[in-house]
């Protein structure tokens, strides 16, 4: 994703046509600590099941020095960094749903389009965008599924790093706003079957939204420009 100069800041465009196309481009490549263009491997369901099994015994593998344990640990590292754990669309040309790499039906085949740019094994989101063919909404991946907004947005872009924001474009004005995930009762992650809520962080008033970061002695702090 190419950066641009905006009011003296070097930023990533999120909501422009090019920005939307490239915003999740990093998910196509190996998850390693250096820039690369090595494409991820599409896993089989057997790969996903073996990955989950190795994750369960992962801590034990680090404590062992035998050849078999080192081989399993190496395979776990390959699964972590070189395999594509995004869900795939199920259904047909009329109705689409979501299915995980393990074969779990995440969403039924009830939508015109569904969002797939997330790790369905290690960081499955709480809410995902879905389309009815005319507009976009957010639905929970809980059981049962809960429609969290009306089908009222021209586009919805989940923030790609911390996954707590959704950039939304109003259908009428084409302006951009933002929704945030909140946990009003616990002020932390949801408990058992209690879903968090969505609140308006910024009404649809922005022409564009850009991603930026503030470099500090500790770690970069993510922020956004409009």
Itemize the secondary structure elements and their pairings.
Elements lengths: L3 E3 L2 E5 L3 H6 L22 H12 L1 H5 L4 H16 L5 E4 L4 E4 L5 E7 L1 E2 L12 E5 L4 E5 L12 E6 L6 E6 L5 E7 L14 E10 L3 E5 L6 E5 L1
Antiparallel strand pairs: 1-2, 2-13, 3-4, 4-5, 6-7, 7-8, 9-10, 10-11, 11-12, 13-14
Structural class: alpha+beta
Radius of gyration: 19 Å
Helical proportion, percent range: 10-25%
Strand content: 25-35%
How many strands, which pairing sense, and closed or not: the largest β-sheet? 4 strands, antiparallel
What global shape is seen? globular
Low-confidence stretches: none
Question: In what order do the strands lie side by side in the largest sheet?
Answer: 1-2-13-14
- Written as H for each helix and E for each strand, in order along the chain, the element string is EEHHHHEEEEEEEEEEEE
Q: State the helix count.
A: 4
Q: N-to-C terminal Cα separation, in Å?
A: 18 Å
Overall pLDDT metric:
92
Number of strands: 14
Give an overview in words.
The protein has four helices and 14 strands. With 226 residues, the chain is α+β, with helices and mostly antiparallel strands. The protein has a four-stranded antiparallel sheet with strand order 1-2-13-14. Strand 4 and strand 5 form a beta hairpin. Helix 2 (45-56) crosses helix 4 (67-82). The longest helix has 16 residues, at 67-82. The protein is globular.
